[in-house]
Amino acid sequence: xxxxxxxxxATGNTGQHVVETLSILLEKGGALSGHRIAALTRSPKGPIxxxxxxxxxxxxxxxxxxxxxxxxxxxxxxxxxxxxxxxQLSQFIExxxxxxxxxxxxxxxxxxxxxxxxxxRPDAVPFYARSHWAIETLLGTxxxxxxxxxxxxxxxxxxTYLQTTADFIKQYRNTGKQxxxxxxxxxxxxVAIVDPYDIGVFVAHLLVQQDPTPHNKAKYVVNGxxxxxxxxIVKLVEKHIDTKVENVIFKDLTWADAxxxxxxxxxxxxxxxxxxxxxxxxxxxxxxxxxxxxxxLAAPKWTPAAVLKRMLEE
Length: 314
Fold this sequence. Notes:
Layout: E1 4-7, H1 15-27, E2 36-41, H2 47-53, E3 58-62, H3 70-75, E4 78-83, H4 91-105, E5 109-113, H5 127-139, E6 148-154, H6 158-161, H7 163-175, E7 181-182, H8 196-207, E8 218-222, H9 230-241, E9 248-249, H10 254-262, H11 267-271, H12 278-281, H13 292-298, H14 304-313
Parallel strand pairs: 1-2, 1-4, 2-3, 4-5, 5-6, 6-8, 7-9
């Protein structure tokens, strides 16, 4: 079996772009040419998985990454890996378990997805942000010296940030009537929302580095190419519907109430999600924070306007 690069959650929003880009880069040759790409998914018969399975060097494997063991990693000769944990109460347990297994198995390098930098701290209010802080702290301990790693800290994912915007436009196009445009964005603060495609491309470029040592223990801020404020989102909407938006709510948090109401987890814990946008509203998540390594290795391309246009065509 060839040395293997594992992509956990390969059919997810970011994972699929990691796999696609890895296939292209490894086909071009280089130090890792001949490495196998193991695309892990719980849905191997789904359309995305079937598409990935056709790519050169890719093997789609039915495997939930949270159940991966050190023995499985050894048997599959895994040398590098990507993981994007889900923001849920079990995140620390599941991701740390994967990382411990990677360390035991002798995996050389892992790239992971974190959250926006201002929220990665031990006193962060959003529950998942503390999990990211804990994981990065764990990786920085002497016990983990044998595992090189890079943590990517996106300000906010563009499709999620713009979902209510796309829904508003689609509703207007279907009914000719305006609802209320609810935005998590503040009116004026610039936020450099980033598309999962751009993150996936960067992850792939990191994973194929002949020597990842320069990126070891790095925490890179990964943003989109442009800032956008709530007022600018409203202007985008007006271009698409060709009329003025009649009613808009900035800093909307009703989505967090809905998650808390339907979640089976502790309601108060889920309501902590309401604190997530505060760094965005404070102007702490603009393009000025983007790490130069991201711009140098795989500069982002998807602007907010382009992401919204794509969402409306889906």
